Every structure is written in structure tokens, then in C-alpha cells.
Amino acid sequence: MTLHDAPTLTRRGVVRTAAWSAPAIAVLSAAPAFASSGVKLLTISDAGSTYKGVNSGALSCTVSTTGQVASGTLTVTVTARANGASAPVTTTSTPPGWTVSAPSPTTVVFTYAGAIAGGQSVALSATVTSTALFASFTALAQAPSYTSSSFVLAAPSGPPTDPIGI
């Protein structure tokens, strides 16, 4: 085949190809990856969490579901790590609609009291603190028969620098 024998691209050919590919793209994008598999998903996303000082975090997150979650079964477990090891974590706040427990010195569990309808979300805002300096906090959302989801509120990279040189 020489360069002159190569097929030419015509406007009609481009339009025909686009007409056949557009429905396929629409069908593929309409269904989430796990929609037909029966897997129920929880998604926890950061909603403006900030690190405070050297050992505290203002945790602000949203938990979304793909299906119904029964009352009292959604939990967000918060743990802390510093220097590669588990670190103590506490909270002094109980957000409205949530209960708080501390099953161990390194774990705080927030349990949502209500039910959540499929496709809905619920917010959680709380302050968490560790006795370890520069601990990172992990929030893990869980519910029975759902895949879990987590995010990390990372600690600053080190001690703050002294701007006036004292």
C-alpha cells in the first residue's frame, strides 16, 4: 500500500462513526461501576477538615450511601497515628444525631442514630485530639453489608517555624 492508496477521511464517515459511538458512551456512563453487582457502597469525603495546633483536628466529613442504612448501624471510627504507631485519640464533642464511644484509648467511634435512605448523605463534624504531637487522624465509615470508605486528616509536616526567631 502506498501513501496514495490510504483511505481518505470524509465528513460523512466521521458523522457515521460519531452517531454509532454516542449511544455506547451514554449507556456506559449511565450505570455506576457497582450498580449491577449488588455491592453497597459507603463513601466518606472530607468536607473542609482542618488541622488545629499540634495535636487536634476539626473533622468535617460527609458519608453517602448507595442503599438504605438501618438506624444505628452507620459508624465512623477515628484513629490516630504518630511516628508510624497508633496514638491515643479523644473527642470532646458529640455532634447532633450521633453518639460517641471510645472502645480503646486509640479509637473513637461515632454512631449515627437515624436511618439513611439510599442515595442520601449525612454530615459529621467533631473535634478530635491526640496526646501525640503531629498525629494524623483516619476516619473510616462502616455499615453492615457495605464496603467501607476512609479518608485521612494528615498532620502538618513538622513543628511550626518561629517567625520571629526566638
Straight-line N-to-C gap? 78 Å
Strand content: 35-45%
Total DSSP helices: 1
- Average pLDDT value? 80
Which spans have pLDDT < 50 for at least 5 consecutive residues?
Answer: 18-36, 161-166
H-E order: HEEEEEEEEEEEE
Q: What's the total count of β strands?
A: 12
What is the CATH level 1 assignment of the domain at 40-153?
Mainly Beta
Decide which structural class fits the backbone: mainly beta
From the coordinates shown, what is the CATH architecture of the domain at 40-153?
A: Sandwich
Spatial shape: globular
Determine Rg (CA atoms, Å): 24 Å
Quick synopsis:
With 166 residues, this protein is mainly beta.
Please tell me about this protein's structure.
- The chain has 166 residues and is mainly beta.
- The chain has 1 helix and 12 strands; from the N terminus they run H-E-E-E-E-E-E-E-E-E-E-E-E.
- It has a domain at 40-153: Immunoglobulin-like (Sandwich), CATH 2.60.40.
- The chain has one helix at residues 11-30; strands spanning 40-46, 50-52, 56-65, 75-82, 85-87, 90-91, 98-104, 107-112, 121-129, 136-142, 146-147, 149-153.
- Strands 1, 2, 3, 6, 9 and 11 form a 6-stranded mixed sheet that branches. Strands 4, 5, 7, 8, 10 and 12 form a 6-stranded antiparallel sheet that branches.
- The longest helix is centred in the N-terminal third of the chain and has 20 residues, at 11-30.
- The model is unreliable at 18-36 and 161-166 (pLDDT under 50).
